[in-house]
Amino acid sequence: MPLDTRVGLKVTSKGTVIIPRPDWLRLEYTCEADLALFDEVVENHQNVALLQICVLMDGLEDYDYVINVPITDELFSKLSPLTELEEIQASNIPLRGYGFRYITSKIVKRISLSWCTATDELFSSLSHFQNLQMLMVRHCFKTLVASDLGLLAENRSLTCCDFDHNCLPDESFERFPELPVLRSLNLEANCLTGENFHFLCRLPKLETLYLNKNPITLKGIKVIANHANHTLGVLNFSECPNADDDWIPYLSQMNQLTSLTFEEAHITDASVPYFQQMQNLQYLELGGCDISKDACQAIHHACPRLTLSLPNGNLSNRDWSKFC
Fold first, then answer.
1. Structural domains in the chain, sorted by start
2. Would strands 110-114 and 15-21 be described as parallel, antiparallel, or unpaired?
């Protein structure tokens, strides 16, 4: 039966093909994956640019949990004719083997893995994509280790890495490589103290670093302040349980900062003199912090271009009369 390229079509009882547009292919399959599904899809859609693969179960959304249906080398090998792929998205799938090496497209720029488990072998096969610019590995829990992240050294075109919600420990970054054009690094909701973030000096173009919901320590803050390059302008420490006034003297030494975010932190009026030194700061989030109205006014007078975000809203230069 030929595939209808205008609508989703149930090819077998074990899988569905959805074609939202001619260059976008989504494969949804149930607990017993039928490889014949992939054969027919690839034969008819060799020019797709975006490939999505996910596992569904009756009554469950595709983000609920990972179920035990492996995507193996055999399946990946069936995708080799997709030579125009630019983006690969996978969710809810145990990924095994060296599967990415079977993807023959030379123009893959974005890979996203969510709620997946991945072996060392599969992660090492990412080096196959020399033009990879964006890598997102989210909610993959404790499947990443130090050796995995070290293998990113081959992906020197990466501009954005997102490793949020993976329970990564500090040891995962012992071998984090030099990535010459990386601009954004999201490490939200891991188990990081920042104490071995010496690798920041190997990221000469890094502009944005998200460390919210991590147990960052004062020692970690010192390491970050001493090893971040002058390009780092945006730092996010929202809901870091150890964030307090002791951090601010070290962060105030980072003259390049333009945006600094705290939320539910132990920041008080004692930090005001240090915020006043941060003349390049354009945005400061202090939601849920124990800081007074007088302290906020003092920060504003020293940094008139600053937008200060508080629980009752953002306050820019023209808003202060309403606040005072």
1. 1-131 (3.80.10)
2. unpaired
List 187's β-bridge partners, or say none.
none
pLDDT band at residue 282 using 50, 70 and 90 as cut-offs: very high
Total residues belonging to the chain? 324
Determine phi and psi for 48, rounding to 5 degrees: -70, 145
CA distance 165 to 194: 16
- Express as a percent the part of the chain with pLDDT over 90: 45
Exposure string of 187-196, with b = 16+ CB inside 10 Å and e = fewer, is bbbbebbbbb
Compute and round to an integer the Cα radius of gyration of the chain. 23
Reported pTM: 0.87
Per DSSP, helices labelled H in 133-179 are: 146-150
- Give every CB contact of residue 46 below 8 A, 6+ residues apart in sequence: 81, 82, 83, 84
Q: What distance in Å separates the CA atoms of residue 308 and residue 285, rounded to the nearest whole number?
A: 6
- Contact present, 132 and 160 (Cβ < 8 Å): no
Q: Per DSSP, which regions of 62-183 are E strands?
A: 87-91, 94-95, 110-114, 117-118, 134-138, 160-162
Whole-angstrom distance, CA of residue 96 vs CA of residue 254 = 42
233 or 121, higher pLDDT:
233
Query: In Å, how far from its chain's centre is CA 277?
Result: 31
For the chain, give the longest Cα–Cα distance: 73
Among the listed residues 278, 281, 216, 213, the one whose alpha carbon sits nearest the alpha carbon of residue 246: 216
| pLDDT tens digits, 48-83 | 888 887 766 444 444 333 334 556 677 778 778 888
Read off the pLDDT of residues 198-249 as tens digits, 9 standing for 90 and up.
999 999 999 999 999 999 999 999 999 999 999 999 999 999 999 999 999 9
Q: Is 311 exposed, middle or buried (0-12, 13-18, 19+ CB in 10 A)?
A: exposed
Nearest CA to 206 among 226, 183, 185?
183
Give the pLDDT score at 15.
59
